[in-house]
């Protein structure tokens, strides 16, 4: 299946080294476990470009490994063309929403932007907190929120796209 025939998901945070690469890795793992990996193209990006080319933060990788994930994407900056290249752009917090929204050039672009926590099932947080300056608890919370919300998101995608 060609990329344009797949459901294209882009997870976005600030640095693209903590939250969004974890969301990318967890979502890839989830669709694989459900046998749906061929239906999706999944990527992540940051609204800032300071970490371009880097692997995810070592702390995020370590916390992910403890749960069986291998977060191994390379950071890149969000670009206006991502609105053409993706069907859903899922942001982690309000700052990400505003920064991505500033690149939108149509109502269709704006409709593609979704908040990760809108898909939460168990948690009531209304954003995924930046763990960069936090301790281990912050990284564990991010993974808890993302595991919960990616499941909710896939549930919605299955309904909307009749998967
Ligand atoms: P992320 O975390 O947005 O979840 O990747 C951050 C990583 C790096 C920085 C900020 C947030 N930074 O300022 O370098």
Summary tags:
alpha/beta; globular; binds 4-nitrophenyl phosphate; 6 helices; 4-stranded parallel β-sheet; Rossmann fold
Give a short synopsis of this structure.
With 163 residues, the chain is α/β, with parallel strands linked by helices. Helix content is 41%, strand content 13%.
Strand content bin: 5-15%
Helix content, binned percent: 40-55%
How far from one another are the termini?
15 Å
Structural class: alpha/beta
Q: Name the CATH homologous superfamily.
A: Response regulator
The H-and-E topology, N to C, reads as: EHEHHEHHEH
Largest sheet: 4 strands, parallel
Structural description of this entry:
This protein has 163 residues and is α/β, with parallel strands linked by helices. It has one domain (3-160): Rossmann fold. 41% of the residues lie in helices and 13% in strands. It has 6 helices and 4 strands; from the N terminus they run βαβααβααβα. α1 links the parallel β1 and β2. α1 crosses α6 (136-160). The model has no long low-confidence stretch (mean pLDDT 97).
